[in-house]
Amino acid sequence: MKSQSNLSLNWTNNTKIKTKFIYPKNILGLKKILKKDNLITTGNQRSYGDIAINSNCIISMKKFNKVINFDKKKGVIELQSGVVLSEILELIINNGWFFPVTPGTKYVSIGGMIANNVHGKKTSRNQMKYYVKEMKLMMQNKKIIKCSSVKNKKIFDLTIGGFGLTGVILSAKIKLKKINSSLIDQKVIGFSSYDQFFAHSNEIKKYEYYVSWIQYFNNQRIKGLSYFGNHSKDKKIYNIKIRDQKLNFFYYSILKLFTQNYYCIKILNFFHQLLKSTFYKKTVNLYDYFYPQDKFINWNKLYGKSGFVQIQFLIKKNDLVNVMGEISAFFKKEKKFSPFVVIKNYNETGNYLNFVGKGISISMDMKIDKEFNKVKTFFNNIFIKYGALVNLSKDFIAEKKIFDKNQKYRKFKNDLKSLGQKSKFASNFSERLGI
Ligand SMILES: Cc1cc2nc3c(=O)[nH]c(=O)nc-3n(C[C@H](O)[C@H](O)[C@H](O)COP(=O)(O)OP(=O)(O)OC[C@H]3O[C@@H](n4cnc5c(N)ncnc54)[C@H](O)[C@@H]3O)c2cc1C
């Protein structure tokens, strides 16, 4: 089935181009599509950046949506790549298992999670790559191969976090995590200085999950809440239902103010802090802990017609105060702000395009406006000045020179070439960075 579209093609609504979508139903259909050149695969289009966008043709894997096998004893699930996490969470949680790494939304496909090598709130081994036991990939020459960390390792490593540039992931076997409870024991700790934030490092060791939401920052002060969590030991699996809803007119109007007005976000942050300290709950269900943003499934519309970006990068711990200071000075001068800032201690290893390294990860959402070029230039200068590593899976703004400077990125490009196939797969992202 084919269709034309000039609707938004990513979660951030920042790219609206006319392109052709193809929805193959089976292997034969997919092989037919791969006769063409200049294609990219998409899962559930939840990426923030332009990695799943191609103005010529996009292959949607939505119809590859079957659970192939679920070994409930060993906790290994084999899924077609178009399966969306939200569709299988109830099944796996009710059987006492969970995804070891999950992003901040459950509306992502298995193929997208692998191709983006997603990370989540885990305090260690926080990359999808650790839990993919094996996958089936249709290569550019239409050959189907099985690959894993022992078999066809090179293509396996290139594909996890390879943003769809190596082939089409057909299915994958994932090792799940055993859980006794569908609840999370949560601890929320506020901080109002850099020293207090850094002191959380001791707390992190006691928890499996953690993230800090920032309410205010400049070069002197940082204020926010850290959410720590462990799977509850209380042996109860509750049948938790997804209750996410669309924004109605009332919430839409109120929340729109918060995403577009600095003073409104300050008020929201004040109430958030107050509510958290008053109604702070020690245990929450998995969905509330991991996917708070899914409560309103179309919150991305709040940023208006031109959409938004999420900028995520990793810096050295010692640079945090200076970087946050520079960002706050820039925001003040240019009258800009971010309604959503998250920071996290980060320590991950890996290759190629993966978001890995040791330090502090900073992410912030920013509305796109007429002066967005200033934002782009400012952050690219920050990336260079502080040797920051950009999370390419969410990227929309990094300049080619940032890519060219990085040895691991260049190795990805060379190793991809060395596979010896004509490059069929391309995206706005790969073209922007010259991959
Ligand atoms: C609210 C929210 C919170 C988020 N939180 C996080 C987070 O905490 N951590 C994080 O890492 N990310 C996070 N993300 C980003 C999101 O998790 C990832 O972008 C996710 O991988 C998108 O999955 P998708 O199915 O929508 O993939 P798409 O956006 O459709 O595609 C993503 C990439 O995968 C490739 N791809 C998709 N399917 C296949 C396939 N079958 N074969 C080959 N390549 C394929 C595409 O070409 C593209 O390069 C968040 C996103 C949202 C909206």
Task: Provide a short characterization of the protein structure.
With 435 residues, this protein is an alpha+beta fold.
- How many helical stretches? 13
Largest sheet: 8 strands, antiparallel
- The level of helicity is 25-40%
Q: In CATH terms, what is the architecture of the largest domain?
A: 2-Layer Sandwich
Terminal CA distance reads 30 Å
Query: What value does the Rg take, in angstroms?
Result: 21 Å
CATH class of the largest domain: Alpha Beta
Ligand list: flavin-adenine dinucleotide
Please write out the topology.
Layout: E1 2-5, E2 19-22, H1 27-33, E3 40-42, E4 58-60, E5 67-71, E6 76-80, H2 85-94, E7 97-98, H3 110-115, E8 132-139, E9 144-147, H4 153-159, E10 167-175, E11 177-178, E12 183-191, H5 194-204, E13 209-217, E14 222-231, H6 249-260, H7 262-279, E15 283-285, H8 286-290, E16 308-315, H9 320-334, E17 340-348, E18 357-367, H10 372-385, E19 389-390, H11 400-405, H12 407-418, H13 428-432
Parallel strand pairs: 2-4, 3-4
Antiparallel strand pairs: 1-2, 5-6, 6-10, 7-11, 8-9, 8-10, 12-14, 12-15, 13-14, 13-17, 16-18, 16-19, 17-18
Helix pairs in contact: 6-7
Written overview of the protein:
This protein has 435 residues and is an alpha+beta fold. Helices cover 29% and strands 25% of the residues. It has three domains: 2-60; 67-179, Uridine Diphospho-n-acetylenolpyruvylglucosamine Reductase, domain 3 (2-Layer Sandwich); 183-401, Alpha-Beta Plaits. The protein contains 13 helices and 19 strands. The strands form four sheets. The chain has an eight-stranded antiparallel sheet. A five-stranded antiparallel sheet has the order 5-6-10-8-9. A four-stranded mixed sheet has the order 1-2-4-3, with no helix packed on it. Strand 5 and strand 6 form a beta hairpin. Helix 6 (249-260) packs across helix 7 (262-279). The radius of gyration is 21 Å and the shape is globular. The model has no long low-confidence stretch (mean pLDDT 93). The site of flavin-adenine dinucleotide has 33 residues, from strand 3, helix 3 and strand 10. The site of flavin-adenine dinucleotide (FAD) has 33 residues, from strand 3, helix 3 and strand 10.
